[in-house]
Amino acid sequence: MDERLQFVARRLAGEPMAELCREVGISRKTGYKIFDRYQECGVQGLTDRSRGPYRYVYKLPFQVENYILNIKREHTSWGARKIRERLMRRFSGIKIPAKSTIHAVLDRYGLVERRARQRRRAQGTALSLGKNPNELWCTDYKGEFLLGNRQYCYPLTVTDHASIENTTILITGANRGIAPGTRRRSTQTRSTESLCRHSRPMATL
What we know:
42% of the residues lie in helices and 13% in strands. It is α+β, with helices and mostly antiparallel strands and 205 residues long.
């Protein structure tokens, strides 16, 4: 405020507005604004003003907001939808607030019960252990290794769970970056050959 008062005093002393604003480091628009406030309100016009709005366009009337709170306290299980229906019957001459606005009023006064979210955990299907041969086959990729012909081999093991009989399916590719689709087709082909030799299992893991 002291700087603004000095600014006004120098302006009243006859200093040009442009030079005065340039020296202080403000625009001429701001300079005229400060000077006009002084002329309208005196020294009080040089104090800092609130940056909040002068009025709230969407602020509910006090009677409506108080009625919402009273209904909620009387019917604790009611939500915004039911309260809005009651408002429509009670106040016919005003614009009824939306459900979201009513919910915001209830939340502001701590009348909304927040429920903890329950995360759904995925539950897998329980697997039955194979007791007899060909009931359950277990398959597993064992990584990769380079062959002597500079091709990579991707060993896929197929084990019968009951008899522990092991069948290894070797899948080779032209290079390390073998396409997943090509590897999948090779796996299907070799698996079909294995099924032809050992018959089809009841389940595969």
